[in-house]
Queue: 2 jobs
Job 1
Amino acid sequence: MTTTMPTAPAPAQPAHRGSAGGGLMRRLNFGTGVLAGVALAAVAWLLSHSLLDSAGTFFQDQVATITFIGWVVGFLLGIGAFNGPINWFRGRDLTHDDELYLAGKDLGPRRYWKFCTDHKVVGVQYFVMTMIVLFAGGVLAMLIRIQLARPGDHFVNPQIYNAFIGMHGILMIVGLIVAVSGPFGNFIMPIMIGARDMAFPRLNALSFWLLVAAAVPLLAVFAVGGISDGWSTYAPLSVQDHVGMDAFAVGVTTFIISTTIAGVNMVTTFITMRTKGMKLDRVPIFTWGVTTSAALGLYAMPFFAVALTLLLSDRALGTSFYLSFGGGTDWLWENLFWLMGHPEVYVILLPAVGAVLEIATVFARKPLFGYNVVVGGMIGIVGLSTIVWAHHMFTTGWAPALNGPFMLTTELISIPTGVVFLALLGTIWQGRLWTRLPLLYVFGFVWNFIIGGVTGIYLSDVPVDNQMHGTMFVVAHFHYVFVGSVLFGALGAVAFWFPKMTGKYLDERMGRVAFWLVFAGVQVTFISMFISGLMGMQRRVSSYAHAMATTNFISTIGAFVIMAGMIIEAYTIVTSWRSGREAGRNPWRSKTLEWQVPTPVPLENFEVPPVVTSDPYGYGEAAPPLEAPAGHPDATPVTVGAAAKEELQS
Amino acid sequence: MTIAHIESVGPAVHHDPPEVVAQRQLLGVWLLIAGDAVIVGSLLFTYLYLRGLNTQKQWMPAGVHGASLVLSWGLVAVTALSALAVWSGEQSIRRGKKDAVSMALVAAVLALAASAIGVAQLAQIPHALNSTSGVRQIAGSYASSLLALDMSNLAHLVLLAFLGLAVAVRVGRGATSAQAWTHARFVRIFWVWVASAIGASAVVTTLFVNSPH
């Protein structure tokens, strides 16, 4: 492999006008953000109490909404998110020094607590935040499974159980939406395409800190009454729910703004910042996964923002969007929600699929099977996912005449999905498999996704859906997709890119223990859950018939096995990060650009922009392998030619 | 086979050329508008959908009348005028004319005037005592949908006023000039989009008032 990265003197920078943030910009951080957020929330609370009619029907919801919005605005103000627009308004653009400061130059670990624009810092921030969000959602899952371990409301009452269900759902959805795109879409993707940063670095930082701002109202939901109606918060129940619903709506809407901004940034980065020679058919497949996901999110997520805003309006302003006695309808909620809800599945899935395909090429030492077909499949998934939403509404009575067409479109989407899946199998097929931890997660993905995918096709069928809708069968299906596939893709991505992000290997032995626990736990939990569903057990119920006790108990055991695996995974990540084995620049002998730059990656990634002259998956076409490393986890495959052979021998 | 050569292409360039940055920012603006269009489209869908259903005949309960066409179309006219002013201001900036600041200010003032019309529209949203809930609230789904559209318009107009003022300030300070006018172009594109969205709202709320059911 030819890799030349000569250093060159930096040219004189263009003149910048004025001074941007002065000292203030340099003093703002997470702490000032929290202080300002709390202060503005308090001010909003006091003002709303003094200005609004406390005897009014909507008073509590108005106060809660204004207070949580106060938190979000205050936090962003305090962390410096508005410095850019304010300075732009004043005609004082950032100087080069300011830009370097914002990018965290010479700030050390402090930059992780600041409004830092370096995409690598944002990637790490997302990584940690994702772990926290998924852990919180996971704890709630355990509480749910404790409740369902045996029949009867023996652990918590139904109201609290409902709150567990709703918050588990939304935290996991939020966590999984950002699980791959957040850490790796930010850290890895720009380097992969030969860019120095994202297209809009400040928007990048803003999207992350909006996520942090959103987390507070979301976690505060419990403190203000919880939510009773699952993460889908179907109206009109959600209109009548506790004040917790206001916190939920503000938190989720803030998160949607975050994902929309991130979507704009990622799509623009992909289209405009590819380096010379990085043609569309040379772009690493992970980048396609992230970009198609971002584009789909840009289309889909605003529907949910509108749905939630109208919900807040019904609760706090007395409108009637969802209340039939005022001329509204719950079907409006269902349409707006699922216009987001089904594309959102693919927003979550596509980056994980991209990561898995990327890993498969490296560890099978083969070119990606059917690259163009895979890209076409991803684009096909994006297109079709926008016209399948009503399959979630087969049993609601909305437009029965459309059940057939929506069944057809839903079944059609299995074609591009299946094509991508076959390409994954084709890539692994007869490869020189190097069974390190990342590849194990690919195998896990393959196993789980086939189960999650095929059961999804069953459910797209109207007669079957009429039987299964609202049962634990559906829950098992989408957990096989989300946990079994997306989480496995995400964990595979962690194992794969951890050396580039941290300079250390993820501990292989502990990682394998975690993998097998999570894998076994998923099978035990969700196969039993399929059976519970087939027996007729409804979802979102806090108790059930004694006939389902055994399958539920098994599911609970499986869930705790998953949790044990995830705790070990988290421990492995922390310990490997602190004291893991040094990995070097390119431990997997991968050919994509992110592995060609030094570790740790320099501030601007490339001293000079790289020029790409061929596709990224030319494995196995040089010298024959010295050995077949399957079964030898520590062995390194030698399939990249003489240069790699020399490197290995040295 | 070599997959990726990384070669020198000359001196390091840590800042992309302005025209490249401008292209990138332009795409970002269009993508933001696309996301915004989904929001506006959803609100229009909501209006038309609730009108089509007329649940419990509560689209327009007794005593509720259609919104003022004078205000609706007055808003469109003022916003369109402001868009014209922004466009003219952008031309002035690109040609280095001295009236650029005043045109941007005119646009901002017109956006503020349009915001005032928006507030007047909100003030006319009918409220009534709902016999089922026993609560005085916004009367029916027609008024609710109007409220959503009006608030969306108002939020956009306030943003336009901010942008117009910003352009005036930036031109005044020389940050936006004949040599660096791309931000004025982005503002103009967004401005035209907002004017179009407000126009679309007015068309829908004018042509489709009474429910067919």
Note: Strands of chain B lie at 127-129, 136-138.
Job 2
Amino acid sequence: MKNWIKVFVLAAVVGIGVLIYVWFFIYNKPHMNIEKATPDYIISASECYDHYANGNNNETLNYTGKVLQIYGSPSSIEKTDSLTVVVFTFSTGMFGDEGIRCTMLPSYSNEVSNSILSKEISIKGYCSGYNETDVILEQCSIIKN
Amino acid sequence: MKKVALLTAAIIICAVPFYGQHFITKNGHISFYSDGPLEKIEAHNKQVNSALNIETGDMVFKVLMKSFVFEKALMQEHFNENYVESDKFPNATFKGKVVNMSDITLTKDGTYEADVEGELTIHGISNKIEDKGTFIVSKEGIHGNSKFNILLADYDISIPGAVTGKIAEEIEITVDVKLKKFSK
């Protein structure tokens, strides 16, 4: 085989490889699997809420966008058409109870019942920040000891 | 002394726009959609805070930008890091009023048109908006819906040069909130 054909075939193979890599691992890369992720911080629910509610911006940046594992006693559970939310309440304001709202992964919806209320549990989730009333944790799972 | 306390309480009550009977949700749904030549972009946020004072018509929305979920993780990253800079501007807000609140009979089930106006703040930039929505009143509460368009340029959201003309400069926002009576 002539050299220029070898070079052409090699370049084509490398090019296709790069395209496949970009398509699957960059453009269509999957969302982070929060359930399997190692938490960046393990803190109590009250400590987490205090960091945001007290308005310490540096602390806020530390937790937002991170995987948190919080522990404490939830005060209520809300179920809507598509979401199950475990709520840790620390205050009351214009929008009602304020605290930490943990949106559970669908696979944990059935596990969440009133039996977990007022008992200490650990929940892991992605912290999307503070909306000036609540700290929001998403894709949450219950950590069993 | 009692009169002073009562007067003080009255002043505080008048100063707080959301005192009075109001309806709230923390699970409101806001989605946006844009259809550009390069790609369609759609994202959903199902954890929107909203409150409506049915006496004054005052209405508030608070939307955490990092709670928007996209189909593609890469889009979500670009949205938060390059477009809305959600670390710097974590929340979008709407503060406004249902100007025809007196036309909406909350004691009677039915569908009512709501004229809403107020200030929408995204990416740290505020603009006045006026739009129409629908309130469906039932025993369960008030189900509010609205759909409107915004221009990215109005909120200082710039499209990177490499994809200019390939991503839509106008996005359609859909609001769907089920407000329930708030009682302490």
Note: The helical segments of chain B are 2-15, 73-83.
